[in-house]
Request: fold
Amino acid sequence: MPMAHSHVRPKITLDMKMAWRNVWRNPRRTWLTVSAICFACVVLIFMLSFQFGSYETMINSSIKINTGHLQVLARGYFDEKSIRKVVENPDPVKELIAGMDLVEAVTVRANAFSLVSSQKRTYGAMVVGVDPVLEPRVSRLKELIRSGEFLPDTPESGGPDAEPDPALVGALLARNLKVRVGDELTVLGQGRDGSVAAAILTVCGIYESGMDEFDRNTLHIPIKTFQSVYSMGPAVHEIIVNVNSLTDVPAVKKNIINRVNHLPAGEGLVVMDWDELVPGLTQSIRIDLVMGMIFWLLLVIVVAFSILNTFLMAVFERTREFGVMMAIGTTPQRLVKLLLYESGLMTVVGVCMGIVIGCGVTWVFQVYGIDMSGSSEILEQYGMSGRIYPRLSPVTALAGPLLVWIITLAVALYPALKIKGMKPVEAMTHI
Amino acid sequence: MEFQLAWRNIWRNPRRTVIIMIAVIIGLWTMISLTALSRGMVNDMIENGIATLTGDIKIYPAGYHDDPSVAYRIGDADQIVSGIKKILPAGTRYARRIKVNAVASNARHSGGVTLAGIDPEMEKGVSFIGNGVADGRMIAETDKNAIVVGQALLEKFDTRIGHKLILMAQGADNEITSRAFQIIGVYRAKLTSTEKQYVFVNLSAARKMLGVGTDISEISISLTSHDEAEPFAREIRELLEDPDIEIYTWKDLLPMLKAYLDIFDGFIVLWFLVVFAAMAFGIINTMLMAVYERMREFGLLKALGMKPSLILRSVLLESGMLLVIGALAGNLLAAGSVAMVAAKGIDLSALATGFEYFGMSSVIYPEIVTKDVVLANAVVVILGLAVSAYPAAKASRITPVEAMAHV
Reply:
């Protein structure tokens, strides 16, 4: 390709050309050094992508089961979980938010701790009132049903002759209560006004999320039933908002705060995002990330020392050569530049190869996923299941190689600066 | 003689030797100290898990594990304990408890808790509640209506010492029974979820409330070492052969922890291999340089009649020395730095909520485990020698003629 060659040539200085040829004087050594750099980049890219992928899985599954992206609550409800702290008039707020940009779905929930009894057993559990139509758009609850069916769209409430209202029960709670689909449950708790709240329910479905805490402690009933049993009137406890993607959360949150306060129904309400709702989640991610950083930094330092010898040898083997070059008038500065070009070239080749191979490997795993089913229990505890998909992004693809680049260049400075103290005559007599 | 030769050879170029040794030292230091740190975290999780009313070995009435209800009980606990005391070593501790799910409520709040009826004396050295309370006083033998709750529960229920707490649970007759208790003490646990979950009353008070006579629902056994749980559990099973009771170890009761331990062990091996690979590039390169510089020398030795296997051996001996010295220094450095940190522990309370999410407390005490140290050193020295075989083979294969042509 003579054309391309002549096109590129003017840009390459003599020093660079010399450096390139010097690098390949000892191909084996160069390849070993380049491989070391490349290896570090591949490991870093893959592991960072893996970490970020698992965080995304953790966040999403937590959001999909519990919190949603954002919640509108009465001030103080989050800390106290008191049945009295309600969103008094949720409909105007719900409609306002549903009409906003970037909002995917809105629903309401209400919670009350109650005694749940079957014929044989009694346990305490959180009774959650959900909207049978809107809930599936926000959470995975409907997909988690293992036997029976999800709550019917239009529950017929009230009436002495009517069928008992339907309820969904967590798999572990159902096992503890020894109930199956079709069995009856009694719920006994305290209403919003302090009165006794009691109801008879029929189990219409049993769900299993894999999160033991959730499966053992919750029972879902239609929001209308909840409101009448617990004397809530039209009130609810939480308005759950899901947006298009995690990155839209701050914008939507701001928008809600700005506009809800202008509503008469919006008084005394606060908006919380998933980060505030599950504070342990982001912090645990931060811990994992910090630990990861320490691990990867130390790995890169080991790599740096392992290639330092190559850079050093490139100087000491060629002392005579440098002596001659200095004798015929090459300035030490130029030699330093030459050496830095050499190590720089090796680094560039290694880093580039690392990025290509690292992204390639990561991409393959991102498409096919990594099967973690051998260790599924532990992952379920953290809200993950089955497969983990690494998440390749510009950050994960470049942060690791950048770190390798910086540390390698820092290491290369030491041998290059050694040249400065060299005397031509002494250098030439060196064997 | 061979050792002396190898020793002198590696110090022909001190700078190069020192640099590659530093790579080995940092590598090993990283392997051991970071593993110790992670072990510290994992051990903390295990200790927390075991101290949270689990114990090393637990004896349950048959059926209770799947369905923790007061319907399943052990009637002859004293007989069982005196039986197994014969086979378990001295220093083992036993705690008898009643444990059922209950609902706690006061005028303003209610929530699910686990009601544990305990003998405070027996809990010492078995579970965290044996360490006593942070505020108020511990329940005593004679207390009838006294209850000890966690700090977090106290805050959640908006109450304080001296106030009443009503507990509701299903009794032995399947009827709901309820009883008012007075809060006399507050305990602190490492995790707030524990503080919210467990409330403690006197064993006899719990028995009376639930109407279970002198029965109990579990015997928790604390051994001197967590590793002995499985062999002893097997022995107890053989000894008792009672279909009405079931014996579990902490590994059965905390399956998440066990799974985490397995993942963790796998991760350590992976981490060691990755760090080793980073070192290996340097080791191969350095040994190659050292060998190529001396090609004429090897050629001469060959010409004098030295066997290739001897040359191979001497090069391997050199790299072995390098690796062993590096490994030793790495071990010492790691032991030193871990000892320094372990005395005080690393306080990470700034990230406390995150640790709770993982079931850990926020002060980490790194712990060096022999198994890990052996593995790290084995990986470095054995695999290090394996990769040095390449330069060593290069040296041993050279012929005198090639060597003389070598510049």
Remarks:
- Chain A has two domains: 15-62+282-428, 68-277.
- Residues 68-277 of chain A form one domain.
- The first helix of chain A runs from residue 2 to 8.
